[in-house]
Description:
This protein is α+β, with helices and mostly antiparallel strands. The strands form 8 sheets. The chain has a two-stranded antiparallel sheet with strand order 1-2. A two-stranded antiparallel sheet has the order 3-16. It has a two-stranded antiparallel sheet with strand order 4-15. The radius of gyration is 42 Å and the shape is globular.
Amino acid sequence: MSPPTEAAASHILTQSSPSSPTPAFAQFPPYPVKSSSTTQLNQVQPPASAVRPPRPHPHGPSHPRPSSFASSTTGVHQRFIDAIGGSLTRQLSIPSAADISVRRTRQVVVGKHSREPLLPINVVKEDPAHPSVPEPQYPARARAQVKLRPHAAPNTTPFVPHISLKTKKPERNYVGYPSKNIFFLYGHLLTGGDSPLPFIASFTLLLGIAGTWFATTCVWWWHNESPAVAAVGAYMCLLTVASMLATAFRDPGILPRDLDPEPPYPAVSPSDGSPRMPLPRDLRVGQTLVRVKYCTTCKTYRPPRSSHCKACDNCVDGCDHHCQWVNNCVGRRNYTSFITFLVTASLTLALVIVTAALNLFILTRRRHVSFRTALSTAPGSAVVFSLGIVVIWPLLALMGFHVRLLLLNITTIEQVRNKFHATLVPGPAPPNPFSLGRWYRNVAYLLCRPAGYTWIEASSVKMEDRRQINPGVYLESDDEE
Length: 481
């Protein structure tokens, strides 16, 4: 039953003690009382439960009453007012800062070293000397009894290096990685799972043309015409070699595995008897819905513009294609170096062809010798000129194709899909949701974006997760009580 109001207390005091001096009433804090439980005037007196002495507060009253009010009330009036004040004090009192600090010092917090709490609760251990600290109230759904584990020691080292059984040393993440990639230098470099012969042949051809040009044509230009040609050629060759090696040995953006081990499946099996496939997901990119599929090999939903490479047996983020000439996939993390390699290789090869042709032309004009004599005088220029003419045409075609895709912000895989879509569905190809509208915006985005961090961290030490769920406490549900 709710305590009587201040108006009821005033009425009872004036009716029961007419000859007593006028009491000085204390100012109580505002106390909202519902109309259904309010004691009405001119009706029955409050029951005995309303006038029982209040329970003493363990830390002292938070709102002491004035002495004038206490001295002017006697008998039942005193007990009645004490019931009202005690009830209001218990419901509206706010502990002071000293009480809060004392309570905090008396609380012993457990579960400090727990991994993550299973329930949003504040687990405390009460001090036996002060049993009056109220226990936290939990919702009915999350109500649980918290007990201390008798011999639960906190795990101070939740992550420990994985020790190899053979070498007795910590292993790195690339050891035993389920793919066809080959790792070098403790996982800092990698190549694809395809045959390395095309890459070896292309790199040997690059070094052969550059070495022959530096040994013959570049030396003639340094001594007879201008050393600037040799300086520019050296810079272009170094840039071409560096970009090719970066494309070949860098992580293209291999996606981690086992991110979605239990994907959703359709409720009904296909009518043709084929096995059920996981349901795809539709993501909104701009104003267009892009459907992403589930990779059964990597057990994860591939992000947009990602694909699974069969040669490397990996899902690659932003996969453009698998290039056999660099023996690696071209993805988000090495796409910029791949475009740089194509452009610089074409420019370097053009420089080699032009300087070799000018070397032979100047020899025939200045020395007035025949062309055959010029070939015998500068055989290196003739060799690099012939190799350059043979190599530059497919290189220019490949560079032109990828520059067009760069301007449109389309990958090679998307281009092939659009061509296949045109053969099945007549009409224009669906719009590209990843294009930024202007060609220069696409170029700036694709060439100036950060490569991003590697997902697999092949060179890092493999760590074992030895964390336990709440090693300091355990929860016992109400059903088990």
